[in-house]
Amino acid sequence: MIIEELRTQLRTTPFRPFTFHLSDGKEIVVRHQDYAWLLQNGSMLFVEDSTGKVHHISTIHITHLTSDSKAEV
């Protein structure tokens, strides 16, 4: 379940950056949990990227998550 994976990744201590992959092939890095907000019902994820752009993503379009040991923090 992607939503539970997202919650787990966002709550992991110490935080480790991760990337989520969308159904259209787009990839967005979550640099820190302060830059991501998941609605309580899990339907939407809001993420600010390294350029300051805020992405509003319907979680139904997230296909998978990957850990980023080299992600820019």
Summarize the structure.
This protein is mainly β. It is built from 1 helix and 6 strands, in the order αββββββ.
Helical amount:
10-25%
Oligomerization state of this entry?
single chain
Describe the main β-sheet briefly: 3 strands, antiparallel
- How many domains would you count in the coordinates? 1
CATH topology: SH3 type barrels
CATH class: Mainly Beta
Query: Which strand order spans the largest sheet, edge to edge or round the barrel?
Result: 2-1-6
User: Which CATH-level-2 architecture?
Assistant: Roll
Overall mean pLDDT stands at 91
Summarize the helix and strand pattern as letters. HEEEEEE
Structural class: mainly beta
Structure, described:
The chain has one domain: SH3 type barrels (Roll). It is 14% helix and 38% strand. It has 1 helix and 6 strands; from the N terminus they run αββββββ. The protein has a 3-stranded antiparallel β-sheet with strand order 2-1-6, with helices on one face.
